[in-house]
């Protein structure tokens, strides 16, 4: 009986995380696009100094900027980047009024250096803003059906999510404790929130993913129900031809194939793909076994991922309710 | 290509090689491969890694964080062509301890040391303050480069969002210590007489007090205490930071940029290139890892088979592959599809890396493309194979 996964589109908050280079941005973009296509009102949130998702959703010679104010990239799909200082200004402004004073102080270089030295607040204020966005209501209805966060690379991703808990346990009373509690409750809400780790089926990212899941279970208490394994080389040979590269290599070297490279070249290409496919398969199984979680495989696209067309192709695989590997 | 822009020359002549690049491009493996090559050229080499894959760490003989290099067994290295004069050792950086060591070195009393090490702000410093992770890596490199039993130090920089933070880290730390805000906190009486300061100070204090009120944490007190304690050691620290920076940007050191062929990775690499330029750090070269090459060299086809000749090609290959009970037509189609897909990867890589390669070459740097290998590199033999691509033996057209 194959296990059926819950739809990613039914959550309120999906936090996409993964080591650098795993394609976390691609997955966040594909999910947002699919959700918007299914009629959801979606907000993509960038966390960090760069805007990576918007250029994928709206490709062009001039990269589109969304900033803290955010921007509607297509119908039902909005994107923004949370700058912690902007969020701090907004929060302090809400807490004490005096926006002018707050902004002036926050713009001061030395104050920034002081704040740069202070731990934890960036993560907390960023998550606080995400909470605020999740809570946003227009005429009683949620402003966004789904908030997709392109979270920092895994090492930082964990600290990121764990900060409200740490603050909650370190601070005894006051508004901050209350606010941290709200944020922590959202992160731990298994109905509303999902952490979506993205991995590659190679040794280092596979091991990191295993460690990530173990640590998440230990401390943060966020729901994780699947691992996305990206850029998986598809099985290149038809059934019954598993040794195709060897068969090609045995052909006479001088065999002239009209309009095609010689057998040795065909054999080399085939052998490479078979090798990658075997490696990816092995580490995808390893990820499934070591985490005990279903694995959703996304194909490696020969032409790369450049825009909405490729994102749509990946989204179809991403939203598959039946995991392609693992769960065994 | 001039002599300095040759990776072999680099490994032969420099004292410090710094591998920079964003995460996920195989930087650690690259650093290890450079180090192995150094040992093979007869140099006493150390590689400083930050976060190696476990099997690579095992292969390098580093099983846990440690601040002293572990020397690899002679026999193991000899089998890989390392001569008697060469050696290879590895260490996995313990960032917190490196920073603690630094504090210990520059505090003048046990009491001052304890006050810093026990301070709450300091305890977060090793994670949070002004790129201290990057700073401790560079500090360790400097320390190793002072030793006379090592000829070459290869460093794998910490993965970070701003992959060059470590270059700025000493400067930022100094700037912070010198900043007017810090001076105000340290010497409020001195600053109080100056009008502009007073205004600033009042605003700042107000916000800080609000933060304190909201958070219930005595942030100001902790910061002041930390800074007071730090002030005693800041002169020594300052001097040290200056020397680290001078060594890393001087003629002894060379930077190698690691990148992957994916567009995002190339974009990051171009950004890094700009930052290296603006920091005045000359780049020795770039290694594009995991690229695809067209087997056997020659031009990469646009389509396999060529448009209009599909039927002929299929018939010929299917006939050649024919065997009893074997669907040779399906196999031939799969073989063409594999070659066609592979050619697309080769073309995409060439397109994505062209600008980066051109810019590095214009600066007189080298460009090496390392193919995507069928498996992970996780042992010394794998590093040696990688070295063949890096150092020329297998560099194709």
The percent of residues in helical segments of chain A reads 40-55%
* Element-by-element helix/strand order of chain A: EHEHEEHHHHEEEHHEHEHHEHE
Distance between the termini of chain B: 15 Å
Q: What is the topology, as strand order, of the major beta sheet of chain B?
A: 3-4-2-5-1-6-7-8
Report the structural category of chain B. alpha/beta
Briefly note the CATH topology name of chain A: Rossmann fold
- Overall geometry of chain A comes to elongated
How many helices of chain A?
12
Let me know the largest β-sheet of chain A: 9 strands, mixed
Describe the model.
The complex is a heterodimer of chains A (328) and B (397). Chain A is built from twelve helices and eleven strands. Chain A has helices at 24-37, 53-57, 84-96, 99-107, 109-117, 121-135, 154-170, 175-188, 203-220, 244-250, 263-291, 308-318, and strands at 13-18, 42-47, 71-74, 77-82, 137-138, 141-142, 146-150, 193-200, 227-232, 294-299, 325-326. In chain A, strand 8 (193-200), helix 9 and strand 9 form a beta-alpha-beta unit. The model of chain A has no long low-confidence stretch (mean pLDDT 86). Chain B has 17 helices and eight strands. The two termini of chain B are 15 Å apart. Residues 126-131 and 189-200 of chain B have low confidence and may be disordered.
Question: What secondary-structure arrangement, pairings included, does this model have?
Answer:
The complex is a heterodimer of chains A (328) and B (397).
Chain A: E1 13-18, H1 24-37, E2 42-47, H2 53-57, E3 71-74, E4 77-82, H3 84-96, H4 99-107, H5 109-117, H6 121-135, E5 137-138, E6 141-142, E7 146-150, H7 154-170, H8 175-188, E8 193-200, H9 203-220, E9 227-232, H10 244-250, H11 263-291, E10 294-299, H12 308-318, E11 325-326
Parallel strand pairs in A: 1-7, 1-8, 2-4, 2-7, 8-9, 9-10
Antiparallel strand pairs in A: 3-4, 5-6, 10-11
Helix pairs in contact in A: 1-12, 3-4, 3-6, 6-7, 6-8, 7-8, 7-9, 9-11, 10-11
Chain B: H1 7-13, E1 16-20, H2 27-40, E2 44-49, H3 54-60, E3 70-71, H4 74-78, E4 87-92, H5 95-106, H6 110-117, H7 120-128, H8 132-145, E5 152-156, H9 165-178, H10 180-186, H11 188-192, H12 195-215, H13 219-249, E6 253-259, H14 263-278, E7 283-291, H15 310-321, H16 328-362, E8 366-371, H17 380-390
Parallel strand pairs in B: 1-5, 1-6, 2-4, 2-5, 6-7, 7-8
Antiparallel strand pairs in B: 3-4
Helix pairs in contact in B: 2-17, 5-8, 6-13, 8-9, 9-13, 14-16, 15-16
